[in-house]
Structures are given as structure tokens and as C-alpha cells.
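LOG
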Amino acid sequence: MEPGLVGPGPYRATRLWNEIIELFRTGMPLRKHRCRFKSYERCFKASEAVDCLHELLGSNQNFGPEVTRNQTVKLLKKFLKNHVIEDIKGRWGKEDFQDDGHLYRFPPSSPLKPYPKKPSFGKEVIKFPNWNDTKAGTSEEHIPVKSVTMNSEMWYKRHSIAIGEVPACKLVFRRELSQENIEEIWKSMTLSRLQKVLGLDSLDEVIDTKLVNSKHIVQNAYSVNKQGIVTLEDKSKDLPHWILSAMKCLANWPICSDAKQPTYSGFERDVFKTIVDYFGQMKEPLLTFNFFDIFVSVLGLLQKHSKAIEALQISCLLLPPENRRKLQLLVRMMARISFNKDLPPLSESVRTRTLMIQAFSRCILCSKDEMDLDELLATKLVSFLMDHYQEILNVPSSLKSSIEEHLVHVQRVQIKYAGADTDATFPTPSFCHQISTDEFEYQRASGSQEPLAALLEEIAMNKEISVKDKKKKLKQFQKSYPEVYKVRFPTPETEAMLFPEKSKQKPPILMWALKKPFQPFHRTRSFRM
């Protein structure tokens, strides 16, 4: 089986788990082994399983070369616990797998995980201001109009409105948007853009939109310093001063901000351990439990570089401001430490970049109910964050400008035509939600009737087409939509009213008809000379 990229969408972690199991069962070589004077068919050594699975994960697009051998051993322990593998005596259920010479085998059927049934999140109704309200102190009937000289073209336009050829219109004065209106528009358009980038029909299966705080989005977009780092109004939610000093020290090594700091051998390792301990004791990861599925879905876009960056930009906008600030400072420190050649090694056995990922991946991304692939998924995401943190942790400029343009538009004085309840230029964006089959059938039956009936009425009342063409179009419509046609024309008489019979006029009397009837030629005698 060729390993493929598992794209974004619901239950991505479960889909990855099932794919790895199938790849491992297909790719793991099985042969005869001897143990304590006894032979066992179709089995493998623990160390051979580690070699095979580590190679599979490293070459798989969903995980990549960042996966370590130690992480592979942890995954095999979970395989043993979930009865993906068993020892040669058929024992399983414990995580006592070791990278050694013990023999294991596959059970007759490896259990693939079923997709969990999540309750469908109801669509949140976002309240927008009533655009039909006039601005306070302004009357629609007393709008100052500059007098103009009436020419033939203007007279025709006014006359056309009077006879109904062009719909009448009026000026609509918009009220100023409240802060709540602005925040809800930001939320709606942000989620709509995220759904489009991920290529999903609905966000319901990957995020509960009711948990998205519109105030957080606006604060993350505007309350930033010159470096783009979020600033907090409540300083008690910020990182402690001593942690900030420690992070600055390693990020700017060897130029520390505090000249009084000690410089003994191993000082940098003690500072690093202090930072790791602080972030390791957090009760919830920086990307939060609520948004775990949305970030796992983004991992399916990593091959599409620009889309993955935009999706992560938008997803990080949804975070609480204190989480976004901590994430910005932490990932920036991790990236600087990884590329700092002047900083002494922080580990004797692990490369600095790998150490950063192993130390902080769990405090950045993990699920509330510990999942089997949490560590591998977090490793992949954190690695991408470190490589592109300057772009990802900035506010997406295209989204910001489009929302700001929309906010300006909806507050302008507009021309509203009769029968138009919404603005056609900038429709209010919304995100889809899943509905039941019965509701879909009802909406399809009821929702499609109105536009079809309007189309039929337009054909019937159109005076610009000939009678022959009109009859042809009506016949085509009747053949395609007989039910709609029958509602409009229940009897042949109602249809005939569209084509009133013209009174038959007698043909004009021709001049030659007034003359005497033709007289046949009578032969007469000819006179010979």
C-alpha cells in the first residue's frame, strides 16, 4: 500500500491510526524464529519491528523524518496495548514492549478504530444590526436634493420608474456598528475563510463554533506590539517575569539582558530546564483542548505550503490572547535556540532542534483524552511552526483587509431597491452546518419552488420575446417542471389568457374586384381585304 497524505477533515487522527496499522501489517517482514528450542512461524523480533515502523513513519508524508526511534517504541507499546500486535504466546494489553529481541506476531485480525460519533454542533445564529433602520435624526422623506435640469434621458428614467419598468429605490442610512456587531462580523468571516481554506463542507465536525470567542479574535488582530506579539490588558495572565527573563536569556545568547546573571558551566542547561518545567506543568496545551481537531486537520495541508500557513494563521487567531502570546514567545525562543551556533549544546545525545520539539511539543498540542498519535502529530505541527513562525504567528493581512473593507461598506449610505432585503455587493458570510436527510429533502422541495415559480412568471410576463418563442419556452418549462407549471396554469384557460385571440379582420377589397367580371372573348367574322 502506498502511503498517502491524509487530508484535513473530521477524525483525522483516527484515519492516521488506521493507515499506520495497515502500512505496518503490510510492510513488516515475517519469518520463522527460534526461542528456547522452539520454532515460531510468521513472527518478528521487537527490534525488527522498531526498525520497520521507524522507517515507515520517517518516509510517510503525514509524519516525516522528525519522528525519533524512541517515539516509535512508544507507538509500538500502544500497538501492544490495543492488540495490534501480541507476543508469541498471545499476550497483549500492557505497554511492556521494549526495543530488544522478544518475539511478536500479528493477531488474525488487527482491530481498526471505528470513527467516533460526535454530536453535531448546532449553527450559532450571529446577530447583525438591522440595516433598514434609518440613522437617528435623519428622515428619508426629507432628503435634500439638488435641483437639476431635466433632459430627455432623465425624463425617460423617471418615467420608466413610474410605469414599473425599473424598480423604485430609496436611500438607506446605516446606523454605526456597535463593538459587538464588529466582533461578530469578525468571527463570522474568519470562520468562513477557515472553512474555505481547509476545503471542508462544514466546520461542525472539527470545531464547536460556540466556543470561539469573537472578542479574542479582535484582540489578537489589533492589540499587538511592534513585533506582532499580542499585548494583554490583564497582566496577571502573562508569563511570570522570571520565565520571560529566562526565555530572553537563551533566545539572545550570549547577549543576555541581565548582566548580573551567573555564567558558570552548565548555566544554560539549568535555565532551559527551568523553562521546560514551567511549560510542562500547564493543565492545558497552548492550542487548547477545544481546538485540537482543527489543528490536526491543518496538518493535512502541509504539502500545500501557502494554504497550510494561512490555515494556521487563522486557527491561531481563535486562541485566547494569553495563549497566543505565550505561543508566540515560546516558538520564537525555540527557533532562535535551534539556529544559534554560539549556544552550547543543551544535551549530549540529542540535537538541539530535536530537543526543542521533544521538550515542548506536548505543551503546545495534545488532546484532552490522550490519543495514540498525539506525540507524533504534535511533533509534526511544532516542527512546521518552528520553520515558519514569523508568518504563521502574524495576523493574516488578506483576511484583515477584507473584513475592514466589509465593515466600511456596511456603514455607508446605500441605494436600496424595492424588494431587495440584503446587499448584493457584500453578502454576509456564513459557515455551513450539517442537517438531517429529511430536512434536506424538505428544503430542496420547498426552497426550489420559489425561484422556479419566479422564472416561470418572468417568462410569462416577458413582452420582448415573440409569441412563438414564449410558447416554446413555456412548453420546455412544463416538460421539465410540471408541478410548478401546474400551480401557475392549473387549467388550459389560464394558459390561454397569455395569448388573447386577435379579432379577425376582413381583407381589404381589391380594386380589381370592383370591375366587371371577366368576359370571355367572342369570335367575330374577319373581314378580308
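LOG (cont.) second protein
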Amino acid sequence: NTRKDLPEMAKVFKKTSGNGGLTLYLGKRDYVDHVSQVEKVDGVVKLDPADFGDRKVFVQLACAFRYGSEDLDVMGLCFRKDIWIQQVQIYPADHKPAQSPMHETLLKKAGDNAYPFTFEIPNNLPCSVSLQPGPDDKGKACGVDFEVKTYLAKEKSNPDEKIEKKDTARLIIRKIQYAPSQVGAGPKADLCKSFMMSDKPVHLEASLDKDLYFHGEKIPIKIKINNESNKTVKKFNITVDQTTDIVLYSADKYTKVVFNQEFAETVDPNGTYENTLAITPLLADNKEKRGLALDGRLKDEDTNLASTTVLRPGIEKEVLGILVSYKIKINLMVAGGGLLGGLTASDVTVELPLMLMHPKPEDDEDFEWEPPTEAEMKVIQARRERQDKISKLMGDYLLKGYKMLGECCDVCGTILLQDKQQKNYCVSCQELDSDVDKDNPALNAQAALSQVRERQLAAQSPAPSQAPELNGGPSSVSVPRPEHCEGAAAGGRAVLPPPAVPSPSPPVTATALAPVRPPVSPPSAALRPVLQEAEEAVLTKLRWATTQLQSSTSLESSIQLCTLIASCAGSLRSLRELSQ
């Protein structure tokens, strides 16, 4: 934890090197990927430099894909591929990060002669996934892992320098992702199957209430069976299959059953069956299955079945390493009567896709969120599109044999790649950036602010014919419609989400324009019903938006609804002033 009010109760993870000179401290081992950014890895290393000599102290964070046990790393053949590495020197001090509450807590725990460090995990790296080892397997589990390591060495990254195991201390951490805030409609599948020696079929229908469930949550399945045939449904069973697709080093896909239960329910000819059955796939029931995908294995008691892999647009599958998916299968065993009943038996099977993920904590004090301004949202949107392009290019180059360095480009800050000739390469500078960067809101905050101001001015400036219409007769008055309010809220939706709060500039209303135009004449009797009808339409739209906002769980939808409410309020005020 990094809570300032609980510094003494924060749980601390530590590991000491074999020589006793290095002690690594971390405040947590799970780091959340919020899609736009990943939580920083803040830690501390306590030193006892008596036996260091001329060696320096480094800290390294590495993301690697391991596809073989440690005992197989012989004869120069390593079954480990480093996806990303970053190293910093902390003694003699060369790395001085800005101190966070986490640093303050860990420094107090470590005592004297402790040095802080910070790593930022790129958001295009995979989440932690491990493959469950068998009972006789030794060493680290296969899969994608993140490791924080502190060690003694003379140089930062010299492949010829041998680092003794007693001069290192390491801790495995996990990069995890929470389920999205909005849950979609549940899947539905149905099948109608005919049989030999039966002129009518068996109907099977299965459905889920939603498309995503949390680990450990009961999953209710609605099952409907309509047996119009002359055969009998003897029983049916429900299974949940986990499919693991390893796409980093080869096209390897396999399936493991993580839940299997049989139900002795019979459905006679011309009979029906309808029920809701709850299932819960758990790791506790699958401890002995070798190769089962788990969420970043640390210990048996602190992990679970791997979460479903959700691919973000723009990130190639190869970069993710391991893809995990689930499906539910409902299988009916249908058999005829008499001596030939067993010979004419057949199965009726339907499948439903399933997503399993972690719920997002309701009270996450570690991640303090504030609504971004419209200019910030424009920058975030453009940077996200640019980062997706960079991620795709990096994935292509990694497949060509390039490796990712722990260094960033001095010009643009993109992670550097290195080819087999040890030549560094920046995909952003070489393939994306151009001479129009000054107008790109992703690279220039001033450009983003300018675009926002232009949009505000365009929305506030009245049309050339608006003033004479207000001063003219009844037939020349332009009455705002509810569609105008909705359009104001959705006007910039194709470019970026609207701001969470109304623009600092007040809405342009009749009151705001009063000092610069003649007074508005009272509307005629013929115009009053039109104004009342328009006012009622705006009120209807305002009530709808308020109701939707109360039940909305999506940040983007809430932002759009707030903007719509503000626009409707301004239009309603203008209509009432025209009616007076």
C-alpha cells in the first residue's frame, strides 16, 4: 500500500542476497495496468558496501517469456526470451527518482544506507501469465513474468561479466489488468438436431446473463430443452474449457478442461426441461493439471486461473506472448429405447464464450483520478493512436530478430530497438514523426489547446442571421430544438470524448448577449405554443439524460451525458427568456 495514513501497517516484501550486502524492498507485487498507464514500480535497496570493492550496485526490471525450465538452460541454449529490460545504477548514486509515499514507507522500514528506485512499465507489454508446472517439475514456471533484481557488477550491461548468484537479490512481480467497468449482454446459443428413426428434433438453448464474470463468481447458465423426438435425453454435462494460445515463439494452442460436472436429468420424448444451473471454475479444483494457464504465479495461494486476454486495437498478438480464452460447453446425451438404444445414441452440444477477469476495486485509494480537461483528452486520444502504431511496428521488428532495450530515444522518448549489428533504432523518429509535429496534439499541448479554443468559439458564435431574427417578428424567430442540445454533446465525439465538466466559458444565452443587442420583443400569441412545445421537448431530453447519468458506469458516457445536460440547461434558459 502507499496510503499515507497507514505507513506502519503497509506490508513489505524483501529479499536479501546470499552475501548479505543487498536487501531489496517492495511495498507490493501486483501492479495494475490502467490501459492508458501502468502503476510505477517503487522500491528501495539497503546496502552493506563492506565487500563491494570496485563493483557498483544496479537494479533491473525485466519482462521475459520463459518456455523451458532452468535446468534446460545448458550448452549455451537458453529457453528464455527477454521482451523488455531496464537497468539503473543506484550506488554510487546515479538514479535519484522523485520520492513517493511508497518510498517514504520503505525507507523508514529499511533504515540507514537505503537507496530508492523507480521503474515505469510500458503499457504495451503483456500481463503476467504462468503455466502451472507438474508435480515433478522444478525451477521457474513457463510463461510471461516480470522480475525486479538488484545485483553487484563492474559495468551496467556487460555480457562477458559473470554475476555470482550470491551477489543478487530478486523478486517476481505481476502486471495485472482489471475488468472493464461496463459489462455487455450475455451470449446465447441454440441448436436443433434431428436423429435417425425420428421425424422430429431435439431443441437445446443455453444463455448467460452477461458476457463477463469475476474469478470465483458463480456463473448461472439458463438451459432450455424441448424434446420433440421419440428419443430420451439420458443426462447432460457442463464443461468449461481454457484455451491457451502461445504465439511468441511458435503457433502452439492447447485446451484444458477446468470445470466438468454431470447432471442426471432425463427428458422423456415430447417432454421439456428448463432450469438455471450455477457453475464456478476454480484453480483449487485443478491443482494437478500441468500446463494450465494462471495469473502470474507467485504462490499457490495467491493466484488463480488466468484472466481472459482482451486485445486492445493496435497491439499485435505476437507482442502479448500468451493468449487465454474460455468457453462453456453443454452436451446432451440422447439415446433411443429398446435393444438398439445404445447403438443409436447421439450428442447435442452448444458452446458459449466466457470471459473471466478480476473486478476493479471499488475504493482504490492508490490511484487518484481526476477528470481530464478537453485539451488533455485530445492529447490522450492522439497519443493513444500514436502509441498503437508504435506498438504494431515494434511487434513486427521483434519478430524480425530485433531486441527491445531499456533505454529511450533522447528526441521522442520512445523505447529503442537494437538490430543484430548492435545498431539502435527508433521506430517513432524513423517511421512516424514528420515536419507537422508542431500541429499534432499528441506531441504539442499548445496545438491541442488551440483546437479546443477554436471549437468553443465556433459553438459560442451566433450565426450571422441570428441577431435580426431575434429582433424581428414571430416568423423570424429561430426556436432551439432538442436535437441541437444532443448535437452539442456529440459534436466532437468523433475526435475525442467531451469534457467531464462544462467549458469554463458560460453558455451563450439570451442573458449573456443582452448587453450587445437590443431587447427582445415579447413573443406573439401564435409563437407561445411553439416555445412551450420546444421547452417541453428540451425538458424531456434533460430528464432522460439525468436518469441515464444516475445509472451510468462508463466514464465516457458520463462525460457525454454531463455535457448534454449543460447544453439542455442553457437552451431551456434561453427558451424561458424568449417566452417572457
